[in-house]
Amino acid sequence: MSVAFSSTTMFFIPKIMRRKAAANTGYNNRRASMKKNDEVVKIDRGVPIPPRRQEKYPIREMVGGDSILVKETREKVSGMLSYWRAKGRKFATRSMEGGVRIWRIL
pTM of the entire structure? Predict the structure, then answer.
């Protein structure tokens, strides 16, 4: 007999019952269907990696005192800046006509 732990109670499940439960999930059926696939994958060598996509706003290049005006909602700007704030950069934002202004603070 094996012991199985639950977050609320401890109970015993015989090995045969665990096998039946696993058989009912269809796991073995999925594995069998994957084995039947005789697709051949071709390996390509010398294919260059494409460059990363261009950043939409020059946040990375901003230094203390720089500001930009973006035509986004304040919620989108807040989400974008949370990434940079987690890396230790500080910003101030204000809603203005035409979008949101972002200032880089030291």
Answer: 0.50
Sign of the CA dihedral running 35, 36, 42, 47:
negative
The runs of H, that is alpha helices, within the chain are 15-24, 27-36, 74-86
Cα 32 from Cα 34, distance rounded (Å): 5
Assess contact for 93 and 81: CB atoms under 8 A. Answer: yes
pLDDT tens-digit readout, 4-16 = 555 554 456 666 6
Residue 62's nearest CA partner among 99, 20, 104 is 104
Secondary structure letter of residue 16 according to DSSP: H
**Edge-to-edge strands, sheet with 90-96:** 67-70, 99-105, 90-96
